[in-house]
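Please describe our next protein:
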Amino acid sequence: MVAIAANNIQMSFMSGTTETKVLKGIDLAVPAGQIRLMMGPSGSGKTTLLSILAGILTPTAGRVELLGQEITQLSRKELTVFRRDHIGFIFQSFNLFPALTALENIELALQLKGKKGPNNKDYAFDLLKQVGLGDRVNNLPADLSGGQKQRVAIARALAGEPELIMADEPTAALDSSTGRDVIELMQYLAKNKGCTVLIITHDPRITDAADEITYLEDGLLAQESSLVTGLHSVEA
């Protein structure tokens, strides 16, 4: 089964009368249960493509199917429900609720996904322990470092074991050990729960965790490489 399918994705932005083409016809297919990395230089369109694949941006042209559902035909309300029910997001900006503790941020994510009950607190605590924050569960975001906020955001994205995880530089603010722990958790979800993981990254430390790498440059897919045929040539 193909979990993420994109056909002829194009995206342009207007600045006055000037049109800038960011994506120039992207075709992409990511099988269910795969960890796919998307790499390429800054400004190549990676974050724009991820936002389109996640239904956050509407492309100028093209179509996107997630889990067999063509999301480019959904209303904004339908898209909101689809994202809530099926996708876990990890943003560079964290997007944590400042008035809630780390634990409460995870509990709220579970509640929004319709998961209620006394076990939510224990489950949220376990997720925070898995990302190395078992001793920070009662801290507000203002009391956490950038790397700690990122780990809360990652735990929140993993809450409820979504079918799709879309992440923008999830390990950028993490040390090697914590970054490896996070990737191993995503590998577990992919291999044991069938979760499909799409990650934008510049981090060469995690390339060995990928099933496949897609390389984006100047709004086009420049190269795709499986692990078998040499990840390191992609990063070179």
